[in-house]
Every structure is written in C-alpha cells, then in structure tokens.
Amino acid sequence: MIYTKQKQPATRKRSNVVIAMAFLISVAGIPVAAAAEDIDQMSQFVGLMQNFFTLMDSMYTAASNPEHAALLQMNSLEDLYKASGNLREMVVVYRDIIEKSTNPTVRRLARMRLADALKETGQMTEAIEVLKHAINETIAESNRQ
Predict the structure, then answer these.
(1) Distance CA 110, CA 59 (A)
(2) Cβ within 8 Å of residue 97, ≥6 positions away
(3) For 48-63, b where at least 16 C-beta lie within 10 A, e where not — what string?
(4) What topology is assigned to 66-144 in CATH?
(5) 3-state class of 76 per DSSP?
(6) What is the pLDDT of residue 28?
(7) pLDDT at 43
C-alpha cells in the first residue's frame, strides 16, 4: 500500500487559520493588531500553527496504517536505544518483530532495520546474512502474487 496525502480543501485551511487566530485572541489575550508588523507576526505564527496541524494530521494518517505505524514505532524505539548507547538491544527487538509478524511489509522493514543495526554494531557478516534472507523472502513473496 502506498501512502498518499490527500489535500485539504481551501475552505478547511482557511477555517484553520480563523480558528487559530480566534484562539490566539481569546486565550492569549492578544489584542487586534493595528500595525503592519504586528499583523505580519500574527500571520507568521498562524503559518506555524497551520504547519503544526498539518504535521499532526500526517502523523495520524501514518499511524492509521499498520505498516506506516510499525515503521514510525521502530524509528522512535531505535532513536531511544541509540541515545542510551544501547543499539544492540534493538537487534533483539527487530528479531522479535520478524518472529511475531505475519505482515510481509512489516517483516521486510524489520529485516532491513535489523541489518542496519547489525552493521552499526559491527556485526557485518550477520547483517549480510539477514539481507540475503530478506531478499529470498521478498522474491518468494513476489512469486506468489
């Protein structure tokens, strides 16, 4: 399945701007801007808010797809293990995902990530074997279709 982002209608985008500005004025107590630079600052802030809501919408859409959600989760978990200096633990996680998942896309993603983690932890020979196995699994899957 290929992820495609649907465009928001222009009216929805405009309503997001109006909502963001109304929120700013009511909650933050921002007075209506009189000077051009104040209007420009508010416009920039509203643009940032629109980008934030677009990002949140994209994350929701990605999280609604099991393959995309798995990839996001693997990325986040790997970032945490790297930050803690314990990337070798991610090798165990990827092997667990491969063992438990029946979804071919999730398995392929996990195998590619496993090979990268093995390479980064100095286990080149094993990384090569994992990728060879992944290639064979992908070929077998494509031959069944």
Answers:
(1) 20
(2) 70, 74, 106, 107, 110
(3) ebeeeeeeeeeeeeee
(4) 1.25.40
(5) helix
(6) 58
(7) 83
> What pLDDT digit, counting tens, does each position of 33-65 carry?
456 677 778 888 888 888 888 888 887 887 788
User: What is the sign, positive or negative, of the torsion defined by CA atoms of 56, 61, 64, 65?
Assistant: negative
Phi, psi of 95 (to 5 degrees): -65, -40
- Residues 120-139 pLDDT 10s: 999 999 999 999 999 999 99
d(CA 72, CA 33): 40
Q: Contact 114/98 with Cβ under 8 angstroms?
A: yes
Which SS3 state, helix, strand or coil, does residue 34 take? coil
Query: Which of 31-45, 69-83, 110-124 is least confident?
Result: 31-45
Which tokens go with 114?
């496993």
Rounded Cα–Cα distance for residues 34 and 15 (Å): 22
Phi, psi of 24 (to 5 degrees): -60, -45
